[in-house]
User: What shape does this take?
Amino acid sequence: MNSLLIGALLLLNLSTCVAVPVSSAPPANVIFDSVDFKNVLRWTPPANSSDVRYDVQWKIYGNAEWREMDDCLGIRKLQCDLSGVTLDLQEWYYARLRASSSSSSKSEWVLSPKFSPRWHTKISAPLLRLNASDRGGIVVRVRTPQPVAKKMQSSRLYNNLIYKIFLIDEVGKEEVFELLCCSGKLLVSKVKHKTEYCFQSQSVAALQGRSSARGPTKCITTL
Assistant: This one.
């Protein structure tokens, strides 16, 4: 009887000495942020965390196998550029992320929403070049950088992207013009002589229901 009691006490003492692994808190707000087909996974760190590293994996929707993102294993930064592995504009993708601490504990994996470069990327505002015409008007040339334009053509964004051009006169009144993607020329003829006018641009993808922020303001004084 005494030997059984001693054995039970020894087992109890051993169980209390065994370290129970504690999982790290997981990261939060794991999302794809895509502008001009640059597809970056972003997240926020766990609350009250320090010395945290992150591992990123990705896969094509429908595939069972997760693949490691070699450039994003054991990283400290809060983003990972997945543009190089999410090149196919017809595919959908997932990414997942886990955190690990200096104590070697790891968090559970956190899954991103399903992502499509074609449907989720935001096209930035086009570039503007202004020239004052000898006839008194303003010529506005609108252009998308060539690498972005090529990808838009292959994704069919080319067919439904609209450029809005905002004309702002000397008293702050706005007038809006629309052009089809991806390059073009707008002649603004109803302007005053020796007067400054300012312009901004915006991209609108109607099919995706997405629009860019307005581009930087560019101004010119008429002749």
Remarks:
- DSSP finds three helices and 15 strands in the chain.
- The CA atoms of residues 69 and 186 lie 45 Å apart.
